[in-house]
Amino acid sequence: MSPADAPKKLRYEAVKELVIALIHDQKLVPGDRLPSSAELVETSGVSSISVRRALDELEREGRIQRHQGIGTFVAQPRIISEPSRLGDLLATLGGGANEKTITTELISLRVGMPGATIAKTLRISSGQPVWEVVRGRSVAGQPAIVERAILPLQVVPSLDESYLADGGSLYKFLANQHGILDHSEEQYIEVALPGALERSWLNLPARELAVTVKGVSFNQEGVPFDCFQQTYPAQRFVFYVSGSKEHQLLSAPDRDDWTVTSLTT
Question: For residue 37, which of 47, 24, 26, 27 has the smallest C-alpha distance?
Fold first, then answer.
């Protein structure tokens, strides 16, 4: 194909390339301010509609962040999550996250009664109590993940509230205190509206979708010991998944029944 036959570049694509080149050439880093829409219109010589489309796409791709009334900035790199990797949550994170930037808040720790799907997945009766641990993880000061773990008391008789509040690994605690090892996991991923708690803690705008990973962990004897749920802001993460064709869950759990009822009022 000759240069004359090459497809003509759309105007918004030229603006995208202009912004990417600006970030590269000026060695801008996350948090650095970018030119305003009006400045890009003047620099590129295209319409405000083309500039707005270019910025919309750059924001969806995770390259920039826009704050109304403040400006446009180079975005933090997206965090890589490998949810199929065995072990505690922090071991699954890479890219824009590391241990030094991650902080933990223990949102709640309670004992309750499992919903029907939880009881079936954990292979316990609906009358057997479970722990529910809910923790929030922030990356570089920004709320990033809400993590729920549901564990049967008959398998996990005790938990350490202070340890969990300090961000300690739940699975390391289970291994050290109760001899429970995470031998295999099964999970599924969905993009949906988050629950009220997740939306509030993650500061998500109304109607914004989130990525939710739901699954179950099995010990070395194939006994399920943890139903977990992790909720992520969709635009901050990239997910890498690998796994096995073997699975022990009969079907994907009903997301409307992934619940625990408190024993106290």
Answer: 47
Render pLDDT for 170-189 as a digit per residue (tens, 0 to 9).
Answer: 999 999 999 999 998 888 88
Please tell me whether residues 65 and 188 are part of one structural domain.
no
Among the residues of the chain, which ranges form H helices? Answer: 11-25, 37-44, 48-60, 116-122, 161-165, 170-178, 196-202
In angstroms, rounded to a whole number, what is the distance separating the alpha carbons of residues 44 and 163?
A: 54
**86 and 45 fall within a common domain:** no
69/19 Cα distance (integer angstroms)? 20
What whole-number distance in Å separates Cα of residue 172 and Cα of residue 193? 31
Interhelix angle 11-25/48-60, nearest 10 degrees: 60
Which among 19, 50, 74 is the end of a domain?
74
Alpha-carbon separation of residue 94 from 16, 17, 46, 133, 134 (angstroms): 27, 27, 38, 23, 22
In a domain, 216, yes or no: yes
Q: What residues make up the domain containing 55? A: 9-74
User: What pLDDT sits at residue 38?
Assistant: 92
